[in-house]
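Could you join me in thinking about how sequence relates to backbone shape in a protein? We need material for that, and I hope you will provide a protein of your own picking. Once you have written the record down, we can walk along the chain together:

…
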Amino acid sequence: MKLASEHFSEEDLKLISEAVKKAESKTSGEIVPVVATVSGRYDRAEDFFGLVIAVAALSLAWLIFQDVTPAKGGWSSGLAVIHLSLPAVLVIIALGFALGSATATLFPFLRLPFIRKQEMREEVERAALEAFQRFRVRATAGSTGILIYVSLYERMARVIGDDAISAKLSQNAWNEVLQLAIAGMKDNNPKDGFVNAIEKCGDLLAESFPIDPDDNNEITNELRIID
């Protein structure tokens, strides 16, 4: 899986930082952009893929090696020799499961068919809240910090505002910001997604939180990257 840091050149990072600076020039809000490679571990999806590979391996082995040979002799009507033994079946299942799980770990796109959208949304929400605390978005003097969180693997985004912002702007107000960030991921251009989302975020904040003459930049402007 391509890491989040590999999606952005030095020029991209500079443009995102400049977008934050420009947006904050008209609002007292503090915009903190964060990008993550992935938000959840999704172990269950890996197990499901491992099970699929185990069943496929057993089915293939059964077709190739299994045979039922009637035993010879006068009393052979109810007797047979099974060529694929129970220990062999168990070994095939165990190896197939281990191989499938390991492969899904190395190639995360294989997990996608086994992950529910609701599970992804919950993991992105959880990770965004963790980033909100980790990058001290709640530390601003006026409680005007806002997080734009983008998770590349899930192709989902989340906007979280501190207390003062949440009191005036509901989550619905950030739908366009979210759509701009997601559009950047869908176009394989997350840099433009961030820049457009930050600009829109600045416009929304400027309406309710105009720039204060004594405003200080309390949180640095760079994109935070979680690989």
Notes: Helices lie at 10-24, 43-65, 86-106, 117-134, 163-168, 175-186, 190-208. Strands lie at 30-36, 68-70, 80-82, 145-151, 156-161, 224-226.
